[in-house]
Amino acid sequence: MPPSRSTPDPARVVWDYHVRAVGRPVELLEVEARLEAGGGDDLSVDDDAVPFVRDVQAASGSSWVAVVANGSTWTVPCHAAGCRVRYRFALREAATKLDDVETAVASGDVVAAPPSTWLLHPPVQPGRFRFQVDAAPGVHFVAATRPSPAVPAAFEAETSALPSSSFAVFGDFHSAVVSRGGARIEIAIAPHEMPLSDAEITTWVERAVDAIAGYYGRFAVDRTLVVVQVGKAGSPSRGVTLGDGGPGVLVRTPGAPTPEAVRAAVRDDWVMTHELLHVTLPTLARDQVWLSEGIPSYVEPFARARAGQVSVEKVWRDLLDGLPQGLPEAGDEGLDRTHTWGRTYWGGALFCLMADVTIREKTGGARSLDDALRAIVATGVDVETRWDVDRVLDVGDRATGTTVLHDAYRNFALAPGTVDLPALWARLGVRADGAGVAFDEGAPLASIRRAMTSVQAGGR
To answer: pTM above the 0.90 mark?
Structure first.
């Protein structure tokens, strides 16, 4: 029996879009939408994208009627039969003026802009949205949004994903694919002034995927979009991960002065691994952004060390230099309430280090933070999944047979907590030695320190 009107079908497509990309390079998007009743009459896009929405019209019988913006929304009454809307979106102008990776950014003829930037939509209602993009020959399109199971070449997700949707790319970009088991990583490369070859970029992604797979046992996310653009001169490699509708990562190359310097920087790069680690983990609430950032910040160097991509000495030297930035300062209220840069990234990493060492101590080296994170990944989550922090702690503690994560959360997230780092380094047998690091193999926790970077038994 079909669902009644009072019980909306969450699998039903209630917002259906047909998009035509105009020009080569793409200048405009011509969008026609069919919207079912029940979502409200006020249509909107991302606030920053409002100035680039043009010529909004609503169908009225066999004709079209202009709709005037009311501030940042367009009111189109959707009666029982739903409504049809069409408009244009100035994609190239938006990318040029906004130059923001989370709304619209251009790299030569290639524009990256999430659907939240260019798809007008009502307030969220139960159901799904679907869109299909047609373009001129030689113009390509790809989206992190998952392919529609019903319509070839279309993309589809829950309506709740649209307001903060993941990346989409228009233009004459180069494509590559990395496949690992059941995982498929699709790469969209903007060739404009790109100092790296497609093969070098593919290797960059492969190294990150392989390091993560070595840490977890596999790269468990079935489909991920990676967008690679040239970085700005003098800027380090930078990345952003979005998840709603499907996992997507946008990374900019290091802005080194020569192609050779860029290649060298990419060989030592941590950003791609950090962003792809985000893809493998559930999204947490804003109060726990320190854990969402802390886990990738902590795991990345250990995963790369076990894969032979970075030296053990560099891992520990970087932790010696960086972790003091994660300690609480006067007035700190705990990681959940103190969202400074240092507490978010290094404070989250410090939480992970303390949890890792404590789990290894309590279990005699039989378990580690690795086991907690592998158990989380084994549930099938990715960045598109939203969890509360209690679920993360519960799954992780069950996997290690301890209460370490819950205990650490009370000590460091709900209260300032602190760590005697000099004492911890002494117990692990780690000390600064000029620009490098020296190890004390007679230290009480030297065996734990060695296990943490060992490829044997996955760090145990």
So the answer is: yes
